[in-house]
Amino acid sequence: MMKHKYSINIIWSDEDECYLVELPEFAHQLQRYFTHGETYEEALANAQEVLELLIEDYQATGQPLPHPLEIAAY
């Protein structure tokens, strides 16, 4: 089980007729959406897989991992 606390945004796209997944901490100008799914559950499972692969790639190449986004306490 993954222990990192990264954000996963899942939105429905009428144009693509599927759920699109954004990983905001890893997004940049060239790539905003990283995967998709026909159902919300499929999109979430795909997001978790992509996130794990991204983390492995960053670690394997010596890149520092992005800091997880935090919600300010009120």
From TrEMBL:
<dbReference type="InterPro" id="IPR051404">
    <property type="entry name" value="TA_system_antitoxin"/>
</dbReference>
<protein>
    <submittedName>
        <fullName>Uncharacterized protein</fullName>
    </submittedName>
</protein>
<dbReference type="InterPro" id="IPR035069">
    <property type="entry name" value="TTHA1013/TTHA0281-like"/>
</dbReference>
